[in-house]
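User: I'll paste a sequence; please echo it back and then give the predicted structure.

Assistant: Echoing your sequence first, then the prediction.
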Amino acid sequence: MATLLHSADAGRSTSSFAHVIEAASNMLGLWRQRIVTRRELGYLDDRMLQDIGFSRLDADREMSKPFWRE
């Protein structure tokens, strides 16, 4: 019985670890996406920014944010 309980706990630990790794991977992906997106805003001219509803000031503010900020 103790072996069965121990095995169940081990499976839960591995599952928890996998969730932590998955969450960390998702966070890194989100941060990378923010870096790329904010950099790409710098390549847009004023007309292109206007097309997406941004002003140059909006773009500058967004580009100045650190990658970990929403």
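The chain has a mean pLDDT of 88. Residues 7 and 34 are 41 Å apart (CA to CA).
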